[in-house]
């Protein structure tokens, strides 16, 4: 993977805010609860049309049967109140189902629905009260049957929100039960006991229905999540297939070049040997060219092996205490000749920071960043430094290359993506476009964060945010850098 590089004078990047580890699960649970509540509210409104139809259809037969026991004006007022309330409930239902209700408003809509259900139940309870007050045995039986039917029929319609059903059933049966208890004779007491039993049984079935609906909603969400996961896996498989195709094309091209170059140099050397014109200078020149090609080939193979090991989950993190200054000095010795050969100045700032990390993996990350910076910086300098941060350290590689356009700053971390404009890098040194992909994946394996800041024409800075060992390891001279 390649890229270009950074501003001449490094300055500390602002620390990004971090959320606590427990916040994500809490947010997930809250989101799941809100989604379940919204789905149950939708069921409550959609299934209530059965009760609303019963309110419209049953009023007239009930009024007809009770016409001899209740004054006509009172029956008319009762029927009118039920129709007006039912019409209002229909309007509210349609309003809820036609709009996208935000999660924070679901509670208000469910509460309003419950209040309207309780009022409707109370109006039907008045009809039951009138049946008891009529002092007519047949009317008493009719009132009991009417209430039993209305109360039981509301179970599937209102059980998506148990308080809505419980309040409606209580408002429906309480006037009838109280009036029967007030009468005090055996027949009325039997009816009162029946009403109490009816209320208890229907509450039980309402609770069962609610649990069933809640389970159904949860299963629906699980199925949706499963489908989404399957789609993601399908997309990942398709992306992997496309990546494999790109990999084969890139590997076939980039591996063939150094092999072909080695063949050419070997043929040249063999041809001159056959002619007897092989001088020590010629041999040294060809050997150095072969060594350069082999180094590029080795970098290609290292990148391929790194990716294959990570894909196979064979890399194991072995952490221990590492002095960054020792690691930086080793990197300086390895990369300073390359920097001088490119006419660049490699600066490595001393540091006293120590990390609990895997030195081999961290070295591989910094190898890729420094090699990338040196290959994609035509002039100027490359800087390696480490800065202490509260709860961590920031390792940075700055360069003064051409920079990276904002729209390309994320794609440079994708596998098989090459940066544009490496004027001094030979084709064999540009590689398969794996360097920065390896940096990001190894950083994730270590629990680090790899980021990029760049301005076209000014250069780039690649940062690795790593946890520090102890605050005591941060030198006093750097205390002002802590945020």
TrEMBL record:
Keywords: Kinase, Membrane, Phosphoprotein, Transferase, Transmembrane, Transmembrane helix. Residues 250-470 form the Histidine kinase domain. It is an enzyme of class 2 (transferase). PROSITE patterns: HIS_KIN. It comes from the Bacteria. InterPro entries: HATPase_C_sf, HATPase_dom, His_kinase_dom, HisK_dim/P_dom, HisK_dim/P_sf, Sig_transdc_His_kin-like_C. Pfam families: HATPase_c (PF02518), HisKA (PF00512). Its EC number is 2.7.13.3. CDD domains: HisKA (cd00082). GO terms for molecular function: histidine phosphotransfer kinase activity; phosphorelay sensor kinase activity. Residues 1-25 are annotated as: Disordered. The chain crosses the membrane at residues 49-66, 72-92, 113-133, 139-158, 165-184, 190-210. It catalyses: ATP + protein L-histidine = ADP + protein N-phospho-L-histidine. One of its GO terms (cellular component) is plasma membrane. This is histidine kinase. It comes from Achromobacter agilis. The gene is bvgS.
